[in-house]
Amino acid sequence: MTRTASARLTTRERARRTARGGASRSVPAPLLVPALIAVAFLVLPLAGLLIRAPWSSLGKALSGSDATQALVLSVWTASVSTAISLVIGTPLAWVLARTSFPGQRLLRALVTLPLVLPPVVGGVALLLAFSRVGLVGRYLDTWFGLTIPFTPLAVVMAETFVAMPFLIITVEGALRSADQGFEEAAATLGARRMTVFRRVTVPLIAPSLGAGAVLCWARALGEFGATITFAGSFPGQTETMPIAVYYALENDPNAAIALALVLLLVSVVVLVSLRDRWLRRGPVL
Amino acid sequence: MTDDLFGGLTVDAEVTRGGFTLSVTMTAAPGEVVGILGPNGAGKSTLLSAVAGLTPVSAGRVTLAGRVLDDAGSGEFVETSGRPVGFVFQNYRLFPHMTVTENVAFSPRARGMKREAAESAAAHWLARLGLTDLADRKPGQLSGGQAQRVALARALAGHPRLLLLDEPLSSLDAGTRLDVQAELKRHLAEFAGPSLLVTHDPLEALVLADRVLVLEEGRIVQAGTPAQVARQPATDYVAKLVGLNLYAGHADGANVKLDKDGSFVIPDRGQQGEVLVAVRPSAIVVSTQQPVAGSARNAWPARIVGMTLLSDRIRLDLDGKPPALVDVTPAAVAELSLVAGADVWLTVKATDLEVYTHT
Which of B78, B116, B124, B192 is the most buried (most CB within 10 A)? Predict the structure, then answer.
């Protein structure tokens, strides 16, 4: 037994189909219901955060000394780790995109591993490498008297470890898809490889460098697991915003919500700034 | 402008890439413009790449003014950035993030000039090519003809000893092409070093080049002056480009037995052996009646299989022994009631046949 679908088309729908073609866009119930559940699951918690926010006392909650300290610390450590990632990650992306050598695939896998690695594992690994008795840390300690764990430097290192791969894969992708004809042209004009990189390659992939840096910064700002493991949570020293949110939830929920709102706001800004890359249809990056 | 630094280019090399082999032996003298003519995929761009150092040669060597640029035998290789070449790319490849001035100043700067000096050098070239008004524009704001001139200025600003041009006019519309072509000819004439100009447009090669090399499937199939190539094409490809009927055959005095079907009577110059016969489509006469046989004439029956309207003529595609392309006037088509499928007679005078040996 077959059913003939017969329904009235609204004028608008009629116009849409005439203009762009295509068949019905109505959603069958077995797809619609789970889709709505998914939307609710993703959106409701954020709505709850906005509803529960102590809007009137927001300023006070944020100006509490702990919250301000966490905010300042987070912003500068995330910025420093982004700067470090740009300085050392961009050249690595270039090496991965423009050269070939044995073991390159393995190297790429290793470099991007922190993307999928639980951050706490990264924290443990950093601790094993850089603690006073660690692989590298013991020499830093005996030769330079430098102790890294549980310092702001450790925060920067943890954030860089977790966030730099975002920059590397973004920039590597851009380098791969960039038109190498311009680099050839530069070479015929007498530019050596470093000049080509500086004056042609980098300016041409600037939008992707920007996007990679924004992604990297956002990831660094939200870093929790590796930071708390490797740097701990000393207020003013290593207690970044996500860690402050976590602890404030117990004794000062309003401050926790206020800090969470700040992080949410940052995320929205990041999303808007990357909208051309992410909110377009189809796969990008 | 002559100085000792300008010298000839010699290429005696092979480039193997995948299943394709380019095998070229050629020279270009200082001040000479050598046109490289050939169909797509013939290896024209590969030849330029090899000369520019973007692709190393697989065998043989490339020298400029006596200096080895690439030698597969000894392993010697000068990187692209170290070769004194100016390359005008197809689609120009102007740096989109730089102004016209910065584009033209790029080469002087990359070759070690300070910014101010490089920019005044750029200003000189912009003035010379009439681009001063466009100095602050970005490439995206230029028309095709303007971009072409900027690309030429950028290539010349590095004081190259060799100029390479890859289809320099192909992305221009027909209107601007003639203007830019005339201008390009002037600048090429002023350039003291050798120039290689790659094109698939025979007119471009005939107008701009002093000498033409025809490249097909990685090999040079003909070399000569533009006039020679236009009058005595060596292959079907060139014949088609210059609009001639071309037949290969075996000459024996006043007769040529064609390799395919048919034969021709030719002026007897005692020619023997393999020859090519070129016939202009307008030299062949179409008639509906069998013509009276003449001693110095060729006549044969053929059937019209296609008709194409050219600007002021109609080109008939005829199947016969041999087949031929023939140009007639629209009036003739009407008077003789020529239609596709019609059987006609073709006549051509022996003196209208260009008979030559394959070079």
Answer: B78
Is residue B314 a contact partner of residue B248, using CB atoms and an 8 Å limit?
A: no
What tokens were used for A1? 């037994």
The Cα–Cα gap between A22 and B40 comes to 39
As given in the structure block, the two tokens for residue B164 are: 């390479």
Residue B130 reports pLDDT greater than 70: yes
For range A117-133, the mean pLDDT: 93
Cis peptide before B322 (omega within 30 of 0): yes
Q: Give the Å distances, CA to CA, from A242 to A126, A218, A236, B76.
A: 19, 12, 13, 59
Report yes or no for ipTM above 0.90. no
Write down the pLDDT at residue B313.
87
Q: Phi first, then psi: what are they for A51, rounded to 5°?
A: -70, -40
For A84-100, give the DSSP string. HIIIIIHHHHHHHHH--
**Segment B132-163, tens digit of pLDDT:** 999 999 999 999 889 999 999 999 999 999 99
What are the residue boundaries of the structural domains of chain B, listed by start? Answer: 9-239, 243-356
Report DSSP state, residue A247: H
Closest to A195 (Cβ–Cβ): which among B54, B97, B110?
B110
In chain B, residues with a C-beta closer than 8 Å to the C-beta of A178 are: none
**Which run of H or E residues covers position B45?**
helix B44-52
Q: Please give the average per-residue pLDDT across A68-88, as a whole number.
A: 94
The conformational region for residue A145 under phi > 0 = left, psi -120 to 50 = alpha, else beta, is: left
Between the alpha carbon of residue A187 and those of residues A87, A101, B50, B96, B164, the distances in Å are: 24, 22, 13, 16, 14
CATH class, range B243-356: mainly beta
Q: Does A192 touch chain B (CB under 8 A)?
A: yes
- Residue ranges and CATH numbers for the domains of chain A are 57-99+108-276 (1.10.3720.10)
Contact B107 A200 (CB under 8 A): no
Residues of A (205-234) whose Cβ lies below 8 Å from B:
206
Residue numbers in B near A209 (CB within 8 A): none
Contact B93 A189 (CB under 8 A): no
CATH of domain B9-239: 3.40.50.300
Query: Which pair of tokens denotes residue A180?
Result: 């190498």
Nearest CA in chain A to B90: A181
Give the residue from B96, B314, B46, B310 showing the smallest Cα distance to B196: B46
CA distance B62 to B53: 10
Nearest chain A alpha carbon to B111: A190
Which SS3 state, helix, strand or coil, does residue B349 take? strand
Chain A residues in contact with B103 by the CB 8 A cut-off are: none
Task: For residue B291, give the DSSP letter.
Answer: P
Q: Which residue of A has its CA nearest to B89?
A: A185
**In this complex, which of A181, A182, A190 lies closest to B111 when CB atoms are compared?**
A190
